[in-house]
Design goal:
The protein has helices spanning 2-25, 29-33, 46-66, 78-81, 110-124, 151-157, 174-185, 242-251, 266-269, 280-283, 286-311, 316-319, and strands at 85-92, 100-102, 108-109, 130-137, 141-148, 193-199, 216-223, 231-233, 236-238, 255-258. By secondary structure, the chain is an alpha/beta fold. A 6-stranded mixed sheet has the order 5-4-1-6-7-10, with helices on both faces. The chain has a two-stranded antiparallel ribbon with strand order 2-3. Strand 4 (130-137) and strand 5 form a beta hairpin.
Length: 327
């Protein structure tokens, strides 16, 4: 916030200075640029370049001043200097997830199938730089663990803990789990988190879809349970609600995967790759953007006067021509 204010203030001051400079030098245009009294066309961009450069330098320096210092040493591991990646598991723990109609033989509980899908994910995705969070959702949502590196804690949560007793009985509210995941992920680095929702589905209201923060780069919705033949629980028929899960994925720009009999595909797992496997521009943090803004702004402010002196006037060659002395 402070960096933005300083950048705007610098831009206003430089713009006022450019306007005053233009008024004061207009009378000297014939002397500076010859009979046409006009500089070369590209020089009209010089005032705007100065304004942008000054704003960039002000924003970059103010941002670097506010950020905590980062120390590099010869024996430091560059892998751990990168910003961490985050994996948020939003797990449906409603009683219907204990029905045994999942897997190839339809003899595995839906929660057990969710554990198998997560184990497959852990084996195929490099998790050395990931921090894992688990959000349990039923009639509400509770963060069970946040930003842990201990996968055994996550495995223990998925091993069949009766977490539905922590909630009041009622309908499953998947939106509550997504809202809690969004709250947890809000302060993280942009595009550093992936949210994985695992559920057998339930009703979704037409309005009130939670908005995911900029830190979430992808959403995976994994369905478990038999999507064709249902089982009774609490006096109602329950089966994997594929249309509902697809609707959640589509409305949030994510991907739906039927995990009842198939693990996540390699293409789907591509979004879970850490930052080093993605493009250079996706790895940049606020610090790198501040350094770039400062460097580019300083270069423009330093080189623009020399460029104007050398290539700004068509009459430059005439004004620098050596005059022969009179006989």
């Amino acid at each position: 916030m402070v960096a933005g204010v300083l950048a705007a203030l610098a831009a206003v001051l430089v713009a006022l200075g450019e306007g005053l400079h233009a008024l004061r030098t207009r009378r000297l245009s014939y002397l500076a640029f010859g009979p046409s009294a006009r500089p070369r066309p590209w020089t009209h961009a010089a005032p705007s370049l100065r304004v942008l450069a000054a704003a960039g330098v002000a924003w970059g320096l103010a941002t670097l001043l506010a950020l905590p210092p980062q120390v590099h040493s010869a024996d430091s591991d560059p892998e751990h200097e990168l910003p961490p990646e985050h994996l948020v598991l939003v797990l449906d723990v409603s009683p219907s997830m204990r029905l045994e109609d999942a897997g190839l033989e339809r003899d595995t509980s839906r929660l057990g199938r969710a554990r198998e899908v997560v184990e497959s994910l852990f084996r195929r995705v490099p998790l050395t730089r990931f921090r894992v969070s688990v959000v349990a959702t039923y009639s509400g949502a509770k963060a069970v663990v946040v930003d842990t590196r201990d996968l055994e804690v996550v495995r223990n949560i998925l091993s069949g803990l009766p977490m539905h007793h922590a909630f009041q009985s009622g309908k499953t509210k998947l939106f509550a789990g997504l809202e809690e995941a969004a709250r947890i992920a809000h302060p993280w680095t942009p595009r550093s988190a992936v949210v994985v929702l695992i559920s057998d589905g339930d009703t979704v209201p037409a309005q009130g879809m939670p908005k995911l923060p900029a830190s979430v780069r992808d959403l995976l919705v994994v369905g478990v349970g038999d999507p064709h033949q249902g089982s009774f629980v609490s006096g109602r028929l329950s089966r994997q609600d594929v249309p509902t899960l697809r609707q959640i994925a589509a409305r949030l720009g994510g991907v739906y995967h039927d995990g009842n009999t198939r693990h996540l595909s390699s293409d789907t797992l591509g979004s879970l790759l850490p930052a080093r496997s993605r493009s250079v521009w996706e790895r940049l943090t606020r610090r790198e953007y501040a350094l770039l803004a400062t460097l580019l702004g300083a270069l423009v402010l330093a080189l623009l006067p020399a460029a104007l002196r050398r290539w700004g006037s068509e009459a430059l060659g005439v004004s620098q021509t050596r005059l022969d002395p009179l006989p």
